[in-house]
Amino acid sequence: MFFSTRYPSPIGMLTLACDGAHLTGLWMEGQKYFGGAIPEPMTERDDLPVFRAAKNWLDRYFAGQKPEISELPLHPIGGEFRQEVWMILCEIPYGEVVTYGDIAKKMAAKKGKKTMSGQAVGGAVGHNPISIIIPCHRVVGANGSLTGYAGGVDKKVKLLALEGVDMSRLFIPTKGTAL
C-alpha cells in the first residue's frame, strides 16, 4: 500500500509518497512523470513518521540549510540502471552541479565500459521519482544549459539559486524538449 501527503513549498505544492516506512516519491505539481513510479493508487495520509521526517527535511532545505540525504529512508522505485544513476545523483554536493556526461562517465566506469549513452543517463535522471531530495536539479548540460528538469526549468533555477550555485555560466535554452 502507498500513501501520499502534500507539502506547500516556495516552489509550489509538492506531493510526497511512501510505502509506510520509506519515501518513494516527491513531485511538483505538473511535473512530468508525476506519480509514475508508484504501482497502485495512493491513499492520502498525513500522520506517518516518514512524512514528518521528509517535511522537516524540506523545511530545513528551503530555509537554506543543508540536510543530508542519508537522514531519510528512501526507496525510489525503478530498474537497476536507474537506481545506479540515482545513487550517483545523491553524491552531488549541495550547491554544485555536474553534467550528464560526468554521470555517463561514472556509469561507464562502474559497468566496465569505455562509454555510456548520455541519453540513457538523461532518461534515468528525468525519471527520478524523489525530486529535490535526490538532487536531479544539480545536473546540467555540458555547455551550461539548464535543460532536462521534469519539474520545469524555472523550478530548477530556483533550487540552484537557493543552494547558492554560481549561475553565471548557466543558461536557459531557447529550444528543447524539457523546457
Strand content: 15-25%
Number of strands: 6
Described by the principal axes of the CA atoms, the overall outline is globular
Which stretches are poorly predicted, pLDDT < 50 over at least 5 residues?
A: none
Strand order of the largest sheet: 3-2-1-4
Instruction: Supply Rg.
Output: 16 Å
**Main β sheet profile:** 4 strands, mixed
State the helicity in percent bands. Answer: 25-40%
Distance between the termini: 34 Å
Structural class: alpha/beta
What layout of secondary structure does this protein have?
Blueprint: E1 2-9, E2 12-18, E3 23-28, E4 42-44, H1 49-62, H2 80-89, E5 98-99, H3 100-111, H4 118-126, E6 139-140, H5 153-162
Description of the molecule:
This protein is α/β, with parallel strands linked by helices. 31% of the residues lie in helices and 16% in strands. It contains five helices and six strands. The protein has helices at residues 49-62, 80-89, 100-111, 118-126, 153-162, and strands at 2-9, 12-18, 23-28, 42-44, 98-99, 139-140. Strands 3-2-1-4 form a four-stranded mixed beta sheet, covered by helices on one side. Strands 5-6 form a two-stranded parallel sheet. Strand 1 and strand 2 (12-18) form a beta hairpin. Helix 2 (80-89) packs across helix 4 and helix 3 (100-111) crosses helix 4 (118-126). The N and C termini lie far apart (34 Å). The mean pLDDT is 94.
Outline of the structure:
This protein is 31% helix and 16% strand. With 179 residues, it is an alpha/beta fold.
List keywords for this structure.
179 residues, alpha/beta, four-stranded mixed beta sheet, two-stranded parallel ribbon, 5 helices, 6 strands, 16% strand
